[in-house]
Automatic annotation (TrEMBL):
Its EC number is 2.6.1.-. Homodimer. The lineage of its organism: Bacteria, Pseudomonadati, Pseudomonadota, Gammaproteobacteria, Pseudomonadales. It is an enzyme of class 2 (transferase). This is Aminotransferase. GO terms for biological process: L-phenylalanine biosynthetic process from chorismate via phenylpyruvate. It comes from the Bacteria. Pfam families: Aminotran_1_2. Residues 306-333 form a coiled coil.
Length: 399
């Protein structure tokens, strides 16, 4: 019998499966709203001008390709900290921070999950209901029991703050609590300052371990405001973790650029934690790849390129905003009487459209429009060429 005979087929990945069906669809008007990628007005994944400039300079250097340190490129790690906490923040100089370059945001989450599980004995993590689908799978693969806390209020298409607070309060003391820092995936529903203050209060009282996932910094309001949660947690002085991703904000998906940041209590604690984190990295992939981090560091550490990137990020954010507004307006024009203004309130790349499974299926069958069965649509995949078709189709299945 073959070694691999007992291996069963893994469950179908819902989003990748959707892409396959979309690719096989021959209808000209087809639209894929299932993806988690920003497309420009021409329907293309952009190569940012700041990235291109940094890449050209890098190629011209003809630099040798040695190994990076286990925790990654130092100027990159420092730039990530400044982006998270602000250039003026005293925490960056405090000797309490560790940042390790990671394989995208996913890699940062996995490093943090492995570290907490192996070195602090954490076994329970709470994620939002709903959450990015890989959160559950990733933490389960790291050995955790994964539970959820309420988050989304379907009645208002907004935040269920009381449910969230009660859910977090009810967790066993010292649980890991995964929080989306901004542009919640999949709902697009975020917390405001007062909401964060209350969540932080419960987390502190219950001695929970906050683990912030920030995969869309700059897609909500701007780079500073989107880091509000990170900065509020930093003010408490408590230890926490942050997983950053630059896949979307630099349009560098395939380069796998992310970072795990750990806020420790003292410089001595920092040294011990870093030494163990390095072991986690060393036994997984030894050290991270060079190119993406070099490019991001070159942009973040050069005022001209930084300004160019900030403008390009604003362009992406504004384009998505424009599409949100257009979608809401066109749905109303097409005769939708239900409240659709929440589409404009939601932030980031996604909108939880409120469409159910059957309506999502009708969109695909009748209109060649593909969305995740939860009703999540990627607003960043809309453009002026496809929005009329999408709005009319959504209106038709909503009636
Ligand atoms: N966290 C959230 C909430 C995400 O939506 C994503 C990507 O879709 C990630 C993390 C992972 O990002 P990356 O592609 O950098 O691994």
């Amino acid at each position: 019998m073959s070694l691999f005979f007992p291996v069963e087929m893994a469950p179908h990945d819902p989003i990748l499966g959707l892409n396959e069906t979309y690719n096989a669809d021959l209808r000209a008007e087809k639209v894929n709203l299932g993806v988690g990628v920003y497309y420009d007005e021409a329907g293309k994944v952009p190569l940012l001008r700041a990235v291109q400039a940094a890449e050209e300079a890098r190629v011209a250097e003809h630099a040798p390709r040695s190994y990076l340190p286990i925790e990654g490129l130092a100027p990159y790690d420092l730039a990530v900290q400044k982006l998270l906490f602000g250039t003026e923040s005293s925490i960056v100089e405090s000797g309490r921070l560790i940042t390790a370059q990671s394989l995208g945001g996913t890699g940062a989450l996995k490093l943090g999950a492995d570290f907490l599980f192996r070195l602090t004995g954490k076994k329970l993590v709470a994620i939002s209901d709903p959450s990015w689908e890989n959160h559950r799978a990733l933490f389960e693969a790291a050995g955790y029991e994964v539970v959820t806390y309420p988050y989304y209020d379907a009645a208002t298409n907004g935040l269920n703050l009381n449910g969230m607070l009660e859910g977090i309060e009810a967790l066993p003391e010292g649980s890991v609590v995964l929080l989306h820092a901004c542009c919640h995936n999949p709902t697009g529903v975020d917390l405001g300052l007062a909401d964060w203050a209350r969540v932080i209060d419960v987390i502190q009282r219950k001695n929970h371990v906050p683990f912030l996932d920030i995969a869309y910094q700059g897609f909500g309001e701007n780079l500073q405001d989107d880091a509000l949660a990170v900065r509020l947690f930093a003010e408490t002085g408590m230890p926490f973790l942050v997983a950053s991703s630059f896949s979307k904000s630099f349009s560098l998906y395939g380069e796998r650029v992310g970072a795990l940041t750990l806020v420790t209590s003292t410089p001595d604690e920092r040294d011990r934690v870093l030494s163990q984190l390095k072991r986690v990295i060393r036994t997984n992939y030894s050290n991270p790849p060079t190119h993406g981090a070099k490019v991001v560091a070159a942009v973040l550490n050069n005022p001209e390129l930084y300004a160019m990137w900030e403008d390009e990020l604003a362009e992406m954010r504004e384009r998505i905003r424009g599409m949100r507004q257009a979608l809401a307006e066109k749905l109303k024009e097409a005769g939708v009487t239900q409240d659709v203004d929440y589409i404009q309130r939601q932030r980031g790349m996604f909108s939880y459209s409120g469409l159910n499974k059957d309506q999502v299926k009708r969109l695909a069958d009748e209109f060649a429009i593909y969305a995740v069965s939860s009703g999540r649509i990627c607003v960043a995949a809309l453009n002026s060429a496809n929005i009329d078709h999408v709005a009319k189709a959504i209106a038709a299945v909503m009636k």
